[in-house]
Fold this sequence. Notes:
With 199 residues, the protein is mainly alpha-helical. It is 72% helix and 0% strand. The chain is built from ten helices and no strands. Helix 1 runs antiparallel to helix 7 (143-163) and helix 5 (69-98) packs antiparallel against helix 6. The longest helix is centred in the middle third of the chain and has 30 residues, at 69-98. Mean pLDDT is 77; it is low at 18-22.
Amino acid sequence: AFLSQLVGALIGPLYDAGYFRAVFGTLMINFCSHYWQFLLAQGFCVGLGTGFLYIPSVALLLQYSSAKQSLVTGIAASGSSFGGVIYPIVLRQLEPRIGFAWTTRVLGFISLATLLVPVCVMRDRGIPKQRHKLFDPKAFKDLPFLLSCAAMFFADTGFFGPIFYIQSYGIEALGIAPSLGFYLVSILDAASVPDRIIP
């Protein structure tokens, strides 16, 4: 989450230049056997890929819609909620049956299938004539930009942190059955779909 937001804040010049495609990390997880490999594959590769793909894709959709931009952004953002429902359930159901390596391959192929069409058809309609620098130190003097980045950082830190513990908290502290406790993240993500779509 941190890398996707960090890259999302710095991706503007690359987005303006027309580059917004990146897919790779989930398939690499099936080769991992040590912690540092998981950190590289899931943490860095997926985090960077998400930042390069998610933030610019949402911004790109606004070029195709002049009316109801909040609804378009909400529908695009709800895709991560659908993923948050589907991926944990697929992982939970397939891992005991086909093993961890093949389960991560299945998750990678689901990612590939769901991203293939958008990556092929999405085109930037408004590439600026004047290209921006890849790193512009003047951006860090722009108070609204800094406040927006800080707000997103603290909001995501406060939001994503508890998600990592919601299952164990539900099972150990609240006494929820483990068979149901695993699905708490999926339930949380399913409940967030209407919140993202309805402005």
